[in-house]
Amino acid sequence: MASKYSKATEEKVHEEMHEMKEGKLKSGRSGKKVIDPKQAIAIALSEARKEGKKVPAKKSAAKKSTTKK
User: Fold this and answer.
1) Is residue 35 in some structural domain?
2) What is the extent of the structural domain holding 16?
3) Is residue 1 assigned to a domain?
4) What's the average pLDDT block by block, 10 residues per block, for the chain (69 residues)?
5) SS3 33
6) Inside any domain, residue 65
């Protein structure tokens, strides 16, 4: 079974989690300290995606189905 993430991506997530635990990881625009592990993972995946590493595409928002009358 193929892995969803490359080894480099997994290392990137590990590095970002370590930074978060040390209190060094900052949010992009606001510059606030990141304290949520899910946010740290999202930042790592976003950076890995920008670097061209193997990462699944972002999930798109669910679309509403409209019925025509």
Assistant:
1) yes
2) 7-50
3) no
4) 81 92 90 92 90 82 67
5) strand
6) no
State the burial class of residue 20 (Cβ atoms within 10 Å of its Cβ: 0-12, 13-18, 19+).
buried
What is the CA angle 40-20-4, rounded to 5?
A: 35
Q: H or E segment at 47? A: helix 37-50
What's residue 24's pLDDT? Answer: 92
Residue whose token pair is 């999930």: 59
Decide if 55 is inside a domain: no
> What are residue 26's DSSP bridge partners?
33
Angstrom distances, CA of residue 35 to CA of 13, 14, 30, 44, 54: 15, 15, 14, 14, 26
Would you say 14 and 55 are in contact if contact means Cβ atoms under 8 Å apart? no
Residue with structure tokens 């300290």?
33
pLDDT of 4 reads: 83
In total, how many domains does the chain have? 1
